[in-house]
Amino acid sequence: MRIWIPLPDTDFDTTEVAVPWRLLTRAGHDVVFATERGGAAPTCDPLLLTGVLFGQLGAEPEPKVFYREMVASPEFHAPIAWRDVEPSAYDGLILPGGHAPGMRQYLGSAELQAKVAAFWSLGRPVGAICHGVLVLARTKVDGKSVLRNKRTTCLPKYMERSAYLLTAWKLGRYYRTYPEYVEDEVKGALADPSQFVRGPRVLTARGTADDDRPAFVVEDGAYVSARWPGDAYLFTKRFLQRL
Q1: Ordered structural domains, the chain, with CATH
Q2: Which among 86, 82, 81, 71 is positioned nearest to 2, based on CA atoms?
Q3: Which residues make Cβ contacts (< 8 Å) with residue 179, sequence separation at least 6?
Q4: What is the pTM of this model?
Q5: Could you write out the DSSP letters of every residue in 160-199?
Q6: pLDDT tens, position by position, 201-234
Q7: How far is CA 7 from CA 46, 79, 132, in A?
Q8: How much is the pLDDT for 55?
Q9: Residue 165 — φ and ψ, nearest 5°?
Q10: Which of 147, 163, 169, 236 is nearest to 203 (CA)?
């Protein structure tokens, strides 16, 4: 099967892209990357490779290995342009997150939202994690978000606020992509705020390939959502089940 993963030119989350790519390709699926203009390999948020603060808060070792493997893959070096995506040619869509400034290119694109809306209407599997849920919250059909009647999670406000307060003295608004918190914007797109599911409170424990206990996802039909990089393995496993 073919899965498309749209990305900004820079600043996407290392884990939220590399883990799905690795698990999907290991399962025999084809991944097609798409950027705004296509043709050139994008890059992840560099601080997630070196450590955001004093070498901490970055990606874990295994996702970094996956990222290096992904960067060497032919599909990563030849992304198509968003305008050239034919939604019906794909069996699944994954919307990764990231919080650094380069993500605005992807999170705010009306062109991308139109392609996502067309794919959503097909009823095929869609996965969104962290800030990636904002793409769906902003994608509208008949003036309403495609998430309006869905249960979902996303980056929780307590997590976004904690990361910002911890790093603002050195990195400024690095952890605040937009003035409004992700959770608040996503809730505003829903028919009822109770459709948002925050999940258990966690700040450091992450799921792994072999241990899903710290991870959390929300499933609603063909849609799977997750909160942050610590959910990436479980998120991809549940997405794979839908394929």
Answers
A1: 2-242 (3.40.50.880)
A2: 86
A3: none
A4: 0.96
A5: HHHHHHHHHHHHTTTT-SSSS-HHHHHHHHSSSGGGB---
A6: 987 889 999 999 999 999 999 999 999 999 999 9
A7: 15, 9, 10
A8: 63
A9: -65, -30
A10: 163
